């Protein structure tokens, strides 16, 4: 074994009282983990805000709520699983997928439904030339928020910064 | 109109996809990744439109 030389000894004592901290991912308490995931689904970006990621929270809120609002502005439609007695599962499966995509935006969907926005009957809504564009933006909003919810969970679980 | 909508869609998707990217550690990496996603959306969209344009059905 090589003995320490004088120079190393001197350096070691010089830096002895300095603690080195790394920006490592840390695991949050269980309640905060669950709370952040639910908050992230209800309000885009809220989960990241709870975890102290303010910049990303604002970014997600603006982009996801923005996409939903753009969709509503383009006469998008709020979908709900439509019954179809002739179908195998007694429900129109494509409307289930569309509903799943849109409900990902959480309270955006609920608030729009309560306020009666995007609830016009489909033949009337589809008369608008931007109907399909609007739907696509609303699907995008919900599906992106699912990613954001997953990201909030990863941060809360200590898997990423 | 369609290109404008496609650009808006690409921009919104790129921002979120870049921000949640687990491999990007710095803001610069995220911005570069987001620009790549945005460009890919637009580029692939335009190429597909040119390929599909001559098809009559």
Explain how this protein is built.
The complex is a heterodimer of chains A (161) and B (57). Chain A has helices at residues 6-14, 30-42, 46-50, 54-73, 93-103, 107-115, 122-125, 131-156. By secondary structure, chain A is mainly α. Chain A has one domain. The two termini of chain A are 40 Å apart. Chain B is mainly alpha-helical and 57 residues long. Chain B has a domain at 25-57. Chain B contains 2 helices and no strands. Chain B is elongated, with a radius of gyration of 14 Å. The two termini of chain B are 22 Å apart. The interface between A and B is medium-sized, with 21 and 12 residues.
Summarize this structure as a short list of keywords or feature phrases.
heterodimer, A: 161 residues, mainly alpha, elongated, B: 57 residues, 2 helices
Topology:
The complex is a heterodimer of chains A (161) and B (57).
Chain A: H1 6-14, H2 30-42, H3 46-50, H4 54-73, H5 93-103, H6 107-115, H7 122-125, H8 131-156
Helix pairs in contact in A: 2-8, 4-8, 5-8
Chain B: H1 2-19, H2 27-52
Helix pairs in contact in B: 1-2
Could you give a short description of this structure?
The complex is a heterodimer of chains A (161) and B (57). Chain A is mainly α.
Radius of gyration of chain B: 14 Å
Shape of chain A: elongated
The residue-averaged pLDDT of chain B reads 93
**How far is the N terminus from the C terminus of chain A?**
40 Å
The major pleated sheet of chain B works out as: none
Q: What distance lies between the first and last C-alpha atoms of chain B, to the nearest angstrom?
A: 22 Å
């Amino acid at each position: 074994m090589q003995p320490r030389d004088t120079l190393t000894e001197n350096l070691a004592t010089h830096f002895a009282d300095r603690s080195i901290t790394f920006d490592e991912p840390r695991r949050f308490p269980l309640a905060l983990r669950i709370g952040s995931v639910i908050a992230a689904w209800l309000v885009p970006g809220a989960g990241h805000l709870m975890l102290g990621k303010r910049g990303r929270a604002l970014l997600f809120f603006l982009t996801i709520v923005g996409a939903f609002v753009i969709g509503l502005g383009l006469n998008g439609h709020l979908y709900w699983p439509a019954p179809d007695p002739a179908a195998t599962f007694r429900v129109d499966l494509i409307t289930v997928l569309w509903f799943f995509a849109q409900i990902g935006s959480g309270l955006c969907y609920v608030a729009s439904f309560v306020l009666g926005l995007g609830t016009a009957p489909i033949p009337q809504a589809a008369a608008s030339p931007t109907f399909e564009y609007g739907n696509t933006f609303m699907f995008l909003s919900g599906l992106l928020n699912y990613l954001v919810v997953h990201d909030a969970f990863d941060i809360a679980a200590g898997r990423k910064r | 109109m369609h290109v404008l909508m496609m650009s808006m869609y690409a921009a919104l998707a790129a921002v979120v996809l870049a921000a949640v990217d687990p491999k990007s550690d710095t803001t610069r990496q995220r911005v570069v990744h987001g620009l790549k996603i945005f460009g890919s959306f637009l580029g692939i969209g335009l190429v597909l439109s040119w390929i599909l344009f001559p098809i009559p059905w």
